[in-house]
Amino acid sequence: MAAEKPVEELTRDEATRELIVLARVIGQANTAYHAQDAPELSDAAYDALRQRNAAIEARFADLKRSDSPSDQVGATPREGFAKVKHAVRMMSLGNAFTDENVVEFTARIRKFLGLKPDDRLDFTAEPKIDGLSLSLRYEDGVLTQAATRGDGEVGENVTDNAYTITNIPHEIPGAPKILEVRGEVYMRHQDFEALNKRQIAAGNKPFANPRNAAAGSLRQLDSSITKSRPLRFFAYAWGEISDPLAKTQFDAIQHFADFGFSVNPLLALCRTSDDLLKQYRWIEEQRATLGYDIDGVVYKVNDLGFQARLGFRSTTPRWAIAHKFPAEIAHTLLEDIEIQVGRTGALSPVARLKPVTVGGVVVSNATLHNEDYIAGRDSKGRLIRDGRDIRIGDWVEVYRAGDVIPKIRDVDISKRSPDSKPYIFPDKCPECGSDALREAGDSVSRCTGGLICPAQAVEKLKHFVSRGAFDIEGLGAKQIEAFFDDEQLPIHEPDDIFTLQARDAKNLTKLKNRDGWGDLSAQNLFAAIAEKRKIPLNRLIFALGIRHVGDSSATLLAGHYGSWQALEENLKKATIGEGPEWQDLLSIDGVGAVMATALVTAFHQAASRASIDRLLQHLTVKNAVIASPPGSPVAGLVVVFTGTLKQMSRAEAKATAEKLGARVTGSVSAKTDLVIAGPGAGSKAKKAAELGIRTLSEQEWLELTGSNP
Question: Which of 5, 64, 128, 300 is catalytic?
Answer without folding.
Answer: 128
